[in-house]
Amino acid sequence: MRLNDEEQAMRAGDFGPVAQWAIEHQIKVGSYLGAEDFVPVTQAHIMADTESLGAAGVEWLERWAKLPEKQRRVRIPTITDPRGTDFAAAHKLKHQPWMLDLERRAIAAFEALGVLMTDTCINYQTIMAPVLREHCAFGDTGVTIYGNSVCGARSNFEGGPSALSAGLTGRTPRYGYHLDRHRRATLVVQVSWTPRELNDWGALGGIVGRLAGDYWQVPVVVGLDRVPGPDEMKHFGAAAASYGSLAMFHMAGITPEAQRLGDVVDTGADLRTHDVGEADVRAFQASYVRQIDTVDLVVFSAPQLSLIEMRQVADLLDGRRATIPTLVITSPQVKPDADRMGITKRIEGAGGTVLSGMCFYQSYAREMAEANGWKRLATNSAKLTNILGGYGYKPALLSMEACITAACAGGKLA
Amino acid sequence: MSKIFHATAGMGRKLQGQALVAKDGFSARYDLDRIKGTFSRPEHKLAGESYVGRVLVLDAAKGGVATAWMLYEMQSRGVMPAALVLNAVNPIMAQGAALADFTMISGFDCDITQAIPNGAQVEIDPSAERPFIRVL
User: Fold this and answer.
1) What pLDDT digit, counting tens, does each position of A272-325 carry?
2) pLDDT, position A166
3) Which residues of A touch B67 (CB under 8 A)?
4) Among A53, A175, A391, whose Cβ lies nearest the Cβ of B69?
5) Would you state the pLDDT for residue A389?
6) In 3D, which of A76, A2, A21, A88 has the Cα closest to residue A45?
7) What is the rounded distance in angstroms from the CA atom of residue A103 to the CA atom of residue B2?
8) What is the pLDDT of residues A190-212, one digit of tens each?
9) I need a surface site. Which of A183, A223, A386, B81 has the fewest CB within 10 A?
């Protein structure tokens, strides 16, 4: 990779050992993925729950956090993805003291590095949405795909070490979605039905992700009869990223880089095309729910809920009572608004539990299952459905309304 | 002489090991029980199999970003594959392998999961001018 004077100085250690490690790490990754140089980035977002970090990862962070202050601080706004617990409610989840201790140590280390502990995967809804052509280093697949596709920003998947590196160096290797040529459509998905509920959008995203197949594919969706709202885009994108490892999609006539299909498809290009209709979405959802007829808990999470989703849950619970654990998980930015507007009180008054700053699958999901006897789970998140099988759960993908109905019927699915 | 399959990119060290092969994806968070060292996702073609010390030959990197930390954590406990060989890599695998100093090669002009027999003894050299895997 070509390095400018400042990058060479970082590599030589002139900015201290953690910046030196960071740029070496970025050169290693960039060289593997064919980057020719670096591109400056304006914000970084780090995924670093302690289930992923483990004790080894936390100790690794702590070593850097002990450096002199001038040598260890990030250079650009750098924020965090959800943590592995909500300290205020950890006892309800049966999180163990060692988990909380590890979380506290990780938080202390990140704070020493100058990282802002926002603890959210919906920063594009709550903190600082990226703008068209802004180069970023986003460390959550849902954040990356939303930023690239809906906002027209430019980011690859930046795992924790790389997002931290970008924060420390203020740049990232220029490959993948930082380059125009990788943002063109590589397949067409023609839909004959426009989803209605959030779980339908997630299911469509999951189908598109599976069809696309890998990180370097960019589907363009054609045929939607209306513009999806931000929460619908959020569920579609998070599922496409989860099922397909996708970092970008277009929706013809909707997303900013695909105002016309021809904007993202070369003239005369013979792209593979797939047709998807309502029956495909229903079959996708049925493939999960037919495994079970009763659930042990209901989870709304992955991504964290917006204020609008929080109120939808509260509205559906009005006059009813959840009789199985019903976890409603949002960001630390939304939670105070939900408190102030009485939404939290309405959910918890009806038997639900509002959690903040965590995400279910990033919070020791396997250990929670064992400690609480949880196995079968209902959710309206296709992303969560995809992830939890590996943690030993049997998930059912239902609408928000059907999840609440199950929660109020002792877990019995209608 | 055994056939050599060249990759477009590689990192880590030259090594030999027994291949564990499937036409399926790889994600540390989605697919593995990292404590037991087994594939745990029921739908995965290697569900129930131990990956510890094996050269994993799989189709594509899948899932989210957690693998970037998890490879390092797995390495610290020694409950780790020997190497990863993929048709299609995503940045997370490269980032995780870089942090963990893990051996990985990717990008072939054939489907590598069809080219390498399951259980075969293989050699990988990611540091060669053209990184490669070959059956011994």
Assistant:
1) 999 999 999 999 999 998 778 999 999 999 999 999 999 999 999 999 999 999
2) 98
3) 159
4) A53
5) 87
6) A76
7) 50
8) 999 999 999 999 999 999 999 99
9) A223
Question: From residue B24, how far is each of A25, A150, A218, B112, B118 by CA, in Å?
Answer: 28, 30, 20, 11, 13
Determine the 3-state secondary structure of A406 from DSSP. Answer: helix
Q: Looking at this predicted complex, what is its ipTM?
A: 0.94
Whether the predicted pLDDT of B1 surpasses 60: no
B21 strand-pairing partners = B57
Percent of the residues in chain B that have a pLDDT greater than 90, as a whole number: 91
Residues A286/A289/A290/A293 CA torsion (nearest 10 deg): -150
Q: Could you tell me which residues come within 8 angstroms of residue A349 by beta carbon, excluding any fewer than 6 positions away?
A: none
Cβ within 8 Å, pair B99-A245: no
Provide, as residue numbers in chain B, all residues whose Cβ is less than 8 Å from the Cβ of A209. none
The pair phi, psi for residue A227, each rounded to 5°, is -85, 120
Interface test with A, best of B90, B101, B104, B113 (most A CBs within 10 A): B90
What are the domain boundaries of chain A?
A: 5-178, 184-281, 291-407
Distance CA(A409)–CA(A375), nearest Å, equals 17
CATH 3.40.50 describes domain A5-178 = no
pLDDT at B62 (0 to 100) = 85
- For A102-117, give the DSSP string: HHHHHHHHHHHTT-B-
Is the domain covering B4-135 a CATH 3.50.30.10 domain? yes
Mean pLDDT for all residues in chain B: 95
Contact A349, A205 (CB under 8 A): no
pLDDT in the model for residue B64: 84
> Looking at the complex, does the CB of residue A193 fall below 8 Å from at least one CB of chain B?
no
What residues of chain A score a pLDDT lower than 50?
Answer: none
Phi, psi of B10, rounded to the nearest 5 degrees: -155, 155
Q: Do A5-178 and A291-407 fold alike per CATH?
A: yes
Spell out the domain ranges in chain B.
4-135
For residue B25 the two structure tokens come to 């994806």
Q: How far apart are the first and last CA of chain B?
A: 9
- Residue A110 CA to chain centroid, in angstroms? 20
Interface of A with B in 291-320 (CB under 8 A): none
Mean pLDDT, residues B42-65 taken together: 94
Q: Is A391 part of the contact surface with chain B (CB cutoff 8 Å)?
A: yes
Q: What residues of B are in contact with residue A157 (Cβ under 8 Å)?
A: 64-65, 90-92
Q: What is the CA radius of gyration of chain A?
A: 21
Q: Give the CATH superfamily of A291-407.
A: Aconitase, domain 3 (3.30.499.10)
